[in-house]
Amino acid sequence: MMNVNVNSPMDVRNAGMQALVAALGPVGCARFIQQFDNGYGDYTKEKYLVPDTPMEDLVRELMNQNNA
After folding, report:
1. What is the pTM assigned to this prediction?
2. What is the DSSP annotation of 1-65?
3. What is the C-alpha to C-alpha distance for residues 21 and 13, in angstroms, rounded to an integer?
4. pLDDT (tens digit per residue) in 12-60
5. CA dist., res. 12 & res. 10, Å (int)
């Protein structure tokens, strides 16, 4: 077991990368890291966003996009 200074973000990151490479190999480690995405936007704001467009218009627009 490795002695890691958990108060040092760099030490924790290095130990984590070493553990991933040891467990998954270099390619598996890279694929694992690629799965993480910070995304974009403001989820909380968008979650409660009420569109000004009537629902029927939104449905019609979606149906037109699927048919295009």
Report:
1. 0.50
2. -----TT-HHHHHHHHHHHHHHHHHHHHHHHHHHT-----S-HHHHHT---SS-HHHHHHHHHHH
3. 12
4. 999 999 999 999 999 999 999 989 877 778 878 777 776 677 888 888 9
5. 5
Alpha-carbon distances of 64 from 2, 3, 51, 52, 57, rounded to whole Å: 58, 59, 19, 19, 10
CA distance 3 to 15: 9
Phi/psi of residue 24, nearest 5 degrees: -115, -15
Give which of 36, 19, 20 is closest to 28, Cα–Cα.
20
What pLDDT was estimated at residue 1?
A: 59
Between residues 23 and 62, the one the model is more confident about: 23
